[in-house]
Amino acid sequence: MTVFAKFASFDRPAQLLMVNQFGINLGFYMLMPFLAGYLAGPLGLAAWAVGLVLGVRNFSQQGMFLIGGTLADRLGYKPLIVAGCLLRTGGFALLVFADSLPAVLIASAATGFAGALFNPAVRAYLAADAGERRVEAFAVFNMFYQAGILAGPLVGLALMAVDFRVTAGVAAIVFAALTIAQLFALPARRGETSTAKTSVLDDWRTVVSNRRFLAFSVAMIGSYVLSFQVYLALPLQAEFIAGAQSQTLVSALFVVSGVVAVAGQLRITDWLRARWGPGRSLVAGMTVLAASFIPLIVVPTPSRFGTIAAVVALLSTTTLLAIGTAAVFPFEMDTVVTLSGDRLVATHYGFYNTVVGVGILVGNLATGVVVGAARNAGIDWAVWAGLAAIGVVSAYALVRLERADRRPATSAVYRSGRHRLPAGRHRLEERPAPTRSSPQRTSPSRTSPPPRPRPTIGEDRRRNPAGSPAARR
């Protein structure tokens, strides 16, 4: 099936969300790569002020994902998507006129918090609309996502030839158009809600008490730390290799990463789905991410095999990182929904993004320190070996989770009794398991069925019939 045919096979809301994500990344990446240069250059801000602005933008997004997800579950997905696009419109528009540090800080905080509002809502909406086709939907979604990242800087580069303020104005227009499109074309939708009213703290307690989800979130930190190196360690390596020509090589990194993701996403996802379930596919993708750094372990500097070999090793690592990221993303997004049990999906997404966001921050700080120390010590390969080790640990953690899911849910006792209701107590009556030598007869009227198995990472969702809430579009 072609990309267009796959895209056309989804309902209109899912299609709109995919196109919306392309527009979000187009508008964002046409501006943000050039923000630091504008702040330090024409505006003349000090280096500490530039760092403060970028830090505020990052924290206002990564640190607020849980707030955005919680609001989406309580108010509905559409209001948060529209509000996020509108807020980012205002933030980029303010950058057109901002000429002082306080104004720039407000604009940066607005653009960051906007992402915290619409990111969990978009993913929860797409998961609900796609139903049993979640993996396929997120595969196509990632193609639009990566296409926006690829096109954004190219458009921004052309606009920067005129002026940064023009670039900011065009980015604001893009988000204004997205706001109008979501407001009038996107149907209202919200997640499955409980009949019992709960507080925000109750919702957060539900998420935090989901140990399997927490374990999965922590295990996936490695995936984000490794894939983020295309913005940190790999550009630093390009500068180390190419010197004055590093900008061309850095541009090539982003082009290769974007093209591989856009061109290969559906093929990679279909290949994995045909062979393994979500759990094993995640392990396979994480293994590819870990192996991505082998070329740079072998050729860490131009002095070993020459500059050309070092460039080839860098581009090979970039390609493998793009393949691994494309392999992981659809199954990762699907697994978050599965482990949430289709309850508080946006809140789970928000919490998940917060956890991996903290992991990215810590991982980037550690990577930056290790890069400098390793080069000073003449052991450049240690950086890439350390990153590969992070991938191996994450892959092992996912293997353990996947094996735990496949463990037979048998018990030495049968438990019967009433299921827990919103009010009242839950009583369990234990009976010895029947054996061949002493069969146990029980009356159907007195014996309750075995408890429903909990959702698993590699769960076969055929348990949900087409008319169930999880499968409805």
TrEMBL record:
One cellular component term from this protein's GO annotations in UniProt: plasma membrane
Keyword tags: Cell membrane, Membrane, Transmembrane, Transmembrane helix
UniProt xrefs under PROSITE patterns: MFS (PS50850)
Compositionally biased residues, Basic residues: 416-425
One Pfam entry name: MFS_1
Subcellular location: Cell membrane
Region (Disordered): 409-473
A molecular-function term among this protein's GO annotations: transmembrane transporter activity
SUPFAM superfamilies, alphabetized: MFS general substrate transporter
Keyword Transmembrane: yes
Keyword Membrane found: yes
Biased composition range(s): Low complexity: 434-446
CDD domains: MFS_MdtH_MDR_like
Membrane topology type: Multi-pass membrane protein
Protein name as annotated: Putative MFS family arabinose efflux permease
Major facilitator superfamily (MFS) profile domain segment(s): 13-403
Domain of life of the organism encoding this protein: Bacteria
Transmembrane segments: 26-54, 75-97, 103-126, 138-162, 168-188, 213-234, 249-269, 281-299, 305-329, 350-375, 381-399
Chief location: membrane
